From TrEMBL:
The gene is thrB. It catalyses: L-homoserine + ATP = O-phospho-L-homoserine + ADP + H(+). GO terms for biological process: threonine biosynthetic process. The lineage of its organism: Bacteria, Pseudomonadati, Pseudomonadota, Gammaproteobacteria, Oceanospirillales. Coiled coil: none annotated. It comes from the Bacteria. Pathway: Amino-acid biosynthesis; L-threonine biosynthesis; L-threonine from L-aspartate: step 4/5. Keywords: Amino-acid biosynthesis, ATP-binding, Kinase, Nucleotide-binding, Threonine biosynthesis, Transferase. This is Homoserine kinase. Belongs to the pseudomonas-type ThrB family. It comes from Halomonas binhaiensis. Its EC number is 2.7.1.39.
Amino acid sequence: MAVFTPLDDAQVASFLSRFDVGELTQLQGVPAGTENSTFFVTTDQRELVLTLFEQGDHEELPFFVELLDFLDEHRIPVAGPIHDREGIALHELAERPALLFPRLPGKHPKAPNLTQCQALGTALGRLHRVSQHFPGHRPNPRDLNWLSAMHHKVLVYISAQDQALMQDEVEYYQSVFGEAPELPQGALHGDLFRDNTLFDGDSLGGIIDFYNGCTGDLLFDLAIVINDWATDADGHLDQERHDALLSAYQAQRPLNATEIELWPAMLRMTALRYWLSRLLVVYVDPPAHDLTPHDPEQFRQILLSRIHHGALPLPEPAVSAGAH
């Protein structure tokens, strides 16, 4: 159960009284999630989600609020935080930072079809197009600098072959990205796996969980998506899902020449990013709560596949009247 701080009806009813959202009729803890306490809140007017922040740097929460407000104002399908009558979104409840959101429709796609991939590609392309104008700044906490600094911590726990693989990859990325021109920058989701989206059938209800949000290389965000959304169980890329997603994305934000050149290396680097972060959770920094960590082996296989098979050719952008 991922409710680490229980709440009762009286606490939530008092909290809701600051907002124009109606009176509490039902409160339900949400078992999904790994870091924060989440509740479904029903009032006599609407369905809401209440999040209590249990971990992380609470000083960074205003960045996430500003980013979500910005994306919501630009009609990107996200749950913009609800502000109280004084215009304040970020509050405290049960001695935890708290945010209230509208509840978006849909559920996580376990095996996304081509229409869902196209919808996600379009939404991410639009998000990246507008996020280049977002004024906030939070450095990417899982970029190449992090990989270079942190991979040493897991070497003692993995085989000699994997040690060499990891060290060789980090050196390769330092060479490739260190000599390259700067890639297009903007605000990123930072963790856009399938379970951070909601689909109502084939319609994208919204993109959720921006708590890895940051600013940095837009290509980094796109590579994370492809490595999850368009990858088979054996780590190989699925051509149809890959092309559906990237074609729709590029209709909104075409990749430039530098991004196209660095795309294979970025797919590899983001695969290593998740292999390393999962190894760190298993061996070095286990979660504060009694939760089962994700299996690092999945992203080791993805990394090996990207090394041995490379990237698929990029598809032509789909035609979109909304792209500019």
